[in-house]
Amino acid sequence: MDIRNRTYDDILVLSPEGRIDHGNSEAFRNSLAPFIDRCKNDGKRLVLDLAGVDYISSAGLRCFMLAEKQAKAQGGTIVVAAMQPVVKEIFEISRFTLIFETFATVREALARFSPTALQAYQA
Amino acid sequence: MLVRFWGTRGSLPVALTSADIRHKVMTALSLAIAKGVNSPDKLKSFIDNDLDFSISQTYGGQSPCVEIETGRAEYLVCDMGSGARAFGGHIMSARNSVPIVVNVLMSHVHWDHIMGFPFFAPAYAPGTHIRIFGCHDVLEKAFRLQQSAPCFPVEFSRLAATIEFIRIEAGQIADIAGFRVTPKLQRHTGDSYGYRFERDGKAIVYSTDSEHKLEDPAETEGFVEFFRNADLVIFDAMYSLLETVSVKEDWGHSSNIVGVELAQLANVKHLCMFHHEPAFNDERIQSVLNETIRFEQLTRGSRPLRVTAAYDGMELEV
């Protein structure tokens, strides 16, 4: 699975698209892996931009959990931004909002991390 | 076919406290005042139609025990949790001159699933025949152990009923009380087994104490086949999805989210959430049910899935 990635200052924004379900969750996890490896205290912080994702199954959410666990162990931070209403509700019902800080937009997520990153995004 | 729930709570029986009752009464009366309920007729309608189940009633706190009516002069029940005490009372009050025959299907022998048996009155009645089916080789040992000194005053050997332990195998169909019964191995510490009951074109699945590993498509497909086209699936939805993949991973239980997903994949008609977390009060269980119904709406395919939460005393016609 291809995941579009952009960097603003030291913030990495990943933008997967489509459905993340039982059929492609492992592919999603594999695509995510190299980016998560870089998400550490002295490396890039990460924003998952879910504007293009219209559905996440339990298997997909598990990938989010594993990514968060690895990043946290490395001292990194992952936040989630721009969820579509359905995905936002799935996040809430499955209680994933308890472990991920969520933002209505990528802009708000970048503002949380770094003014420089926000500036780069707005440029 | 009628399914009757005698115990629906997981892990440990619980009871409402006086504070819980007071909270229900306060909430109900406050709402009644606000609605101007001022006659017995209005009161009944108010209770039935305006109050949430979590205020007007309770999900109960007995541990697992689920009866499937057989339509014959014999009983069929899944697990012997603390709900078995009331089930036994029901059998004794309904008995006539016909000897009692009770068929028990055991998911596993953890304490919350066997603890009702020492209080199961038919076990003390001469002439009763109890047939305990299960896939564990420690089945009989577990039942005898919990009635050994110093844990219980009545030794298993002193029970008056004729009690048989019958080993069945996962994947092998057994004919029990007129049902075609298929056991399936499930992921749980010490193993557990789900049962699919089929008769007259109807199918009921009892699947509790079962964790589902989401990374294994073969495992998922196995459960989809086990649940396929079932009229009712009684499903262990003890935890949230987040808990099952984080702090409570490998605790052997599942979530509402996975229950809905599997039921949708398998074209199930009715998903009944079961094995409720003992730390949850009625309002919390109701809230989880409401969220699960919403999740089903969000993810619905071509056919709606009915979603309920089991409560002690619930009866479902299948």
Keywords for this structure?
heterodimer; A: 123 residues; alpha/beta; Transcription Regulator spoIIAA; five-stranded mixed sheet; two-stranded parallel ribbon; B: 318 residues; Metallo-beta-lactamase, Chain A; 2 domains; seven-stranded mixed sheet; 10 helices; 31% helix; 23% strand; globular
Describe this structure in words.
- The complex is a heterodimer of chains A (123) and B (318).
- Chain A has 123 residues and is of the alpha/beta class.
- In chain A, strand 6, helix 3 and strand 7 form a beta-alpha-beta unit.
- The longest helix of chain A is centred in the middle third of the chain and has 16 residues.
- Chain A is globular, with a radius of gyration of 13 Å.
- Chain A starts with a strand and ends with a helix.
- In chain B, helix 9 packs parallel to helix 10.
- Chain B has 10 helices and 14 strands.
- In chain B, strands 6-5-4-3-2-1-14 form a 7-stranded mixed β-sheet. Chain B has a 7-stranded mixed β-sheet with strand order 7-8-9-10-11-12-13.
- The termini of chain B are close together.
- Chain B is 31% helix and 23% strand.
How much helix is in the residues of chain B?
25-40%
CATH fold assignment of the largest domain in chain B: Metallo-beta-lactamase, Chain A
Which class best fits the helix and strand makeup of chain B? Answer: alpha/beta
Order the strands across the largest sheet of chain A as they lie in space.
1-2-4-6-7
Which two chains touch over the largest interface?
A-B, 21 and 21 residues
Strand content of chain A: 15-25%
| Class based on secondary structure composition and strand pairing of chain A | alpha/beta
Contiguous uncertain segments of 5+ residues of chain B: none
CATH class of chain A: Alpha Beta
